[in-house]
Amino acid sequence: MGKRIYRDPVHNIISLDQDSEPDRLLIALIDAPEFQRLRRIKQLGLALYTYQGAEHSRFVHSLGVMHLMNRVLTLLGEHHPIDEGVRLVALCAALLHDVGHGPFSHVVETLLGFHHEEWTVRLISDPRTQIHQLLSHTDRELPEKIIAVLEHRYRPRFVAQLVSSQLDVDRFDYLLRDSLMTGAKYGFFDLEWVLHALELDPREDRLYVSAKGLYAVEEYLQARYYMFRQVYFHRALRTAEVLLKAIFRRAIELNAAGQLRFNLSDSPMGKLLQQKTLTTEEYVELDDHDLMFFIKQWAHERDPILRDLAHRFLERRILKSIDFTLTGALKDEFIDRARRIVARAGFDPDYYLSEDRASDTPYRPYTPEQAHPESCIYIAENGGQLQEITRVSAVVAGMRPFHLNRLCFPEEVFEEISTLAEEAPFVEGSPS
């Protein structure tokens, strides 16, 4: 039957053999409607508001993760026997790990009640989905095995580590892919050396990195750290997210009051605006295009706030922001003065003034204190003894979580907020 070839900008050729039963399952899963939906979910949400090339999808990322899982298993299999059933579970889990992502990825999860991990489990476990039917037809227990991997209950343990840990194929792919597609170079690292340095400790059932891989892993962790700082926390990206959240907060409130003219109450989006739980069939219908369609309609709403917010989003007139490090009474005073400035300019501060905190993002830099024990990175010293990486690397030990607090506001009050910031010595940086 030949091969199914996927041309990929990061990995070049991703190949599946249609004469191989495991690969035929992977091909069928890729062709399933629940997985094809990921073509319509942007990997980086609103990053395209800052990086014009960031149009890549969860679909291509998931293919890349599966490809890297295959490569790692092949390399590990040169020295350790890996059961074919375990290999299939690992490949399916890598492919399907993001299948539950909602529109614009992480942006609206909290606001609209999305938790993509839970939805991934639901889509895999629901007998009505094509994904579940394909998996269970191959092995009745396969859906539960994949869910066990995603929930870190599966044994052998290294499979879950490869899917989700501090050193996993998911992060390998998205760092390289996001760097390539955004044009930012911060996320590049020596993937080949990392892959060839990964080892399996069968006695403890865990992954570790051989001594030769220390510097490559340092580079990888630095790449991830700087991608957080320079890309995932970019001002324009984050303020675009703040604006999107304000739009949906306003739409939900208007809908609850019976004042939202356009809502299509029976559609998946309409049900979300009513805070209703979706079925799996309804969830699969939901993607980035639904959100954009509703926002385009709301640009013609009677409500002036929603109408203006929608226009700003569509026309990329996103908010400005300033960093600040205040706490307690000083913070309250600063924000109160900023709210008065925004209100005097004719804007409702409940929608046009917002804090943006680094703690709101799902991304975290590596620290052994915050990592799950299974997620810690271990390095084999020259004597063969395994050490947690911060004990042998001053570079990694020096990486610590960074704190970010920003105040977001309309461009129309830029000058006044700038003056307020200049008068306050406790505010760091300049507005942008």
SSE map:
Blueprint: E1 3-8, E2 12-17, H1 21-31, H2 33-36, H3 58-76, H4 84-96, H5 109-112, H6 116-125, H7 130-138, H8 142-150, H9 158-163, H10 169-182, H11 191-197, E3 198-201, E4 206-209, H12 214-232, H13 235-256, H14 268-273, H15 280-284, H16 288-298, H17 304-314, E5 320-323, H18 328-344, H19 349-352, E6 354-357, E7 378-380, E8 386-388, H20 394-397, E9 405-409, H21 414-423
Antiparallel strand pairs: 1-2, 3-4, 5-9, 6-9, 7-8
Describe the structure using short key phrases.
two-stranded antiparallel sheet; 432 residues; 9% strand; mainly alpha; 21 helices
Short description:
This protein is mainly alpha-helical and 432 residues long.
Number of helices: 21
Strand content: 5-15%
Average pLDDT confidence is: 92
CATH class term of the domain at 3-220: Mainly Alpha
The tally of beta strands, per DSSP, is: 9
- List unreliable stretches of 5+ residues: none
Q: Assign an overall shape.
A: globular
Output the CATH homologous superfamily of the domain at 3-220: Hypothetical protein af1432
Structural class: mainly alpha
Radius of gyration: 23 Å
CATH topology of the domain at 3-220: Hypothetical protein af1432
**What is the string of SSEs from the N terminus onward?**
EEHHHHHHHHHHHEEHHHHHHEHHEEEHEH
Give me the side-by-side strand order of the main sheet.
5-9-6
Helix content: 40-55%
CATH architecture level-2 label of the domain at 3-220: Orthogonal Bundle
**Amino-to-carboxy terminus distance:** 56 Å
What does the main sheet amount to? 3 strands, antiparallel
